[in-house]
Design brief:
single chain, 186 residues, mainly alpha
Length: 186
């Protein structure tokens, strides 16, 4: 019943999910599990918002799931081939570009700052690492562009998970203790 509440967009007074835009997205997405709420929470941010229609179409089977590269398919399967979280950007840098964990975090930070000279240097590091994985430069640039577009605005999964779990609990109270829920909100 709680996921039906979210799927129907009846999320007034539900933490992180109460705006009209968020309610519309929920009606389109039809979340059926906590992982969906987590991803939708992370996607509903200025940068990755453009990816919501693709996420929804893939989740609901209206669009085929595509991955930036087969090597990251397993890591991106939970989010239907879309980099939703900062951690996924970092893992992509590690898997495809040969970055260390620390190096991937530095890349994520550099992407957030958007300094052209630093980004040109990071792009070349990514290309060189990708070449070691037999990934040609055009594909490496394509993946790097995806990462760069998202990383500046991306949400980390732990925040999205904590927010979404709290939202689910709030929704549970709304479903099972409706009068008390509304009294508490007043």
């Amino acid at each position: 019943r709680v996921y039906k509440l979210f799927s129907d967009g009846l999320t007034e007074a539900i933490f992180q999910f109460e705006s009209r835009g968020m309610q519309g997205m929920l009606r389109d997405a039809k979340p059926t599990r906590l992982e969906d709420l987590i991803a939708l929470n992370a996607l509903y941010r200025p940068g990755p918002m453009d990816l919501i229609p693709t996420f929804v179409a893939r989740k609901n089977g209206r669009e085929e799931v595509e991955y930036p590269h087969p090597l990251v398919a397993n890591m991106l399967s939970e989010t239907y081939g879309i980099m939703v979280y900062q951690e996924q950007v970092m893992q992509t840098a590690q898997i495809l570009g040969g970055y260390s964990l620390g190096g991937a975090d530095m890349l994520r930070r550099a992407m957030g700052k958007k300094k052209p000279e630093e980004m040109a240097e990071q792009r070349q590091i990514f290309r060189d690492g990708a070449a070691k994985n037999n990934i040609d430069q055009s594909k490496a640039d394509e993946v790097f562009d995806l990462m760069e577009k998202f990383a500046g605005y991306g949400f980390n999964k732990s925040h999205a998970a904590a927010y979404s779990l709290l939202a689910y609990h709030t929704g549970w109270l709304k479903v099972h203790y409706r009068a008390e829920f509304y009294c508490a909100n007043m």
